[in-house]
Protein 1
Amino acid sequence: MKYELIALDVDGTLINDHHELTQGTIETIRKIAEQGTEIVLCTGRAPDSTIPLMKQIGLEGYIITHNGAATVDTRNLNVVNEFALNPHGLEMYIDYCHKNNIHFDVNTTFALYVQGAAGLSKEALDLYSKFMIQPKELPGWADFSEPIVKFTVTAPMEELDKVYADWSLWSQEFNMLRSGDFFIDLMHKEASKGAALQNLAAKRGIPAEKVMAIGNYFNDLTMLTFAGLGIAMENSPLEVKAAANDVTLSNNDEGVKAALEKYCL
């Protein structure tokens, strides 16, 4: 089977735990792209922290960002698909965060906003800098000029377990997902990596059986199950491995490289 479209998650999948993209992985991806296969990074990151990785690999084209809430063409920065959420529905979640001292941010496709941006702690600034993000001060809802696509909370794992349990009891207007051990995202009910990948594949005229996806976490489940071949990383939770067609090496052992060599070279 020649796969025409390959979707790669970034954190915990494409890059290692030191946020490094290995040369061996880059060379393997380039070989496959030269064969005519379209490579799409499909990530919870924003475009500004995804495009540099595309450039490092030597690719251009589409990226699926914000866990599927926004698809962007890197060649012209056009937004080709966007799932805008209702900001007023976030108010009860923001109240909860204030009462429980939980850090949150609000994302449009190209910008990230926090309350008290100028007074963020060094720890928070270091976290954002890892993802090449410069937070802006959160305005009122009426002052947003672009759609809001994602609301993210960040806290230690044990605190987030309680947040997730509490919010799971609420009537859900949003798609709530655990996008990492230290992150919970709220998005439009229909937004997911799988939905965005399905839309992109349809736009490109590529059937699901010719789509391959590689990921490592719960936010990758929808794209792993949509793709004709879904591959989980060795560092994935058991539930993610169970949903995949195959399991490759960990992100620290060039698992993406191993999977691509096995199925595409």
Protein 2
Amino acid sequence: MGCVVSSKSKGEVKKIRKPKPWKLPQVITQSQLMQMREEFWDTAPHYGGRTEIWEALRAAAEADPDLAQTIVESAGVIVQGADLSICYDERGAKYELPKYVLSDPTNLIQAR
């Protein structure tokens, strides 16, 4: 478990990227999306794992991909896929991030 991120069969490190475009079942506004994100991050430590890893994952999720790469490497986070949706800490604790904290849905609307 000494690696920082998952690697391809040739030993290449996967670069962190935003998830592919996705759509919520219902149309939501930016403020509703922000509320969903805040609720997730407020409750995330209660799902298990270490608080400092949750904080690093939040910082990575809110950063551009290059900075996110640096954050997860510095925190010792092991990324299963390149989009940060499933990660592990060095002790093997699993951290699952929903798409709505990683990127905006395609059916996001502006409030009037």
